[in-house]
Structures are given as structure tokens and as C-alpha cells.
Amino acid sequence: MLSIHDRGRGMTPAQIADIGAHMQFERRFYEQQGVGLGLIIAKRIGELYGGELTVESTQGEGTVVRFAVPATKEQAGEGS
User: How far apart, in whole angstroms, are the C-alpha atoms of residue 35 and residue 39?
Assistant: First the structure.
């Protein structure tokens, strides 16, 4: 599992639920670089390999993103 922690402004539960392609939250208030694809690409890759991406966040405190994929095909339910 890969876990990334930041101490940024955090995300609301609604923002976490709305993670998708080209999503940048509160852009009118905060300068943001990029095109808003990072989390959705990681989420889709995780799903393709039987894993998952989870996001936990507290506004004003930061965010934790966890990315996990099974180590083997058997763990992903694709055994022989």
C-alpha cells in the first residue's frame, strides 16, 4: 500500500465523493496547477488491478490518500 499525507486545506466529504476527471475544487479561490487527472487516474489503475484508492480528509488539517493493489492475481480473485 502507498499512503500519501499532506497538511493542506483538506477536502469535504462532498468533494471526495465528486473526485473525477478534470475536477479541481475551489479553483476560484485557490491557484491550482495541473488538469485535475491525478486522483482519478490512480483510482482507475487501482480498480483495474483489483485494488482501491481511498481518501480521508479533514478540512483545515489535511488529506490522506491510500492506494493499494493486491500483490498477486490470486489475491485479486483471478486465480487459476
Answer: 11
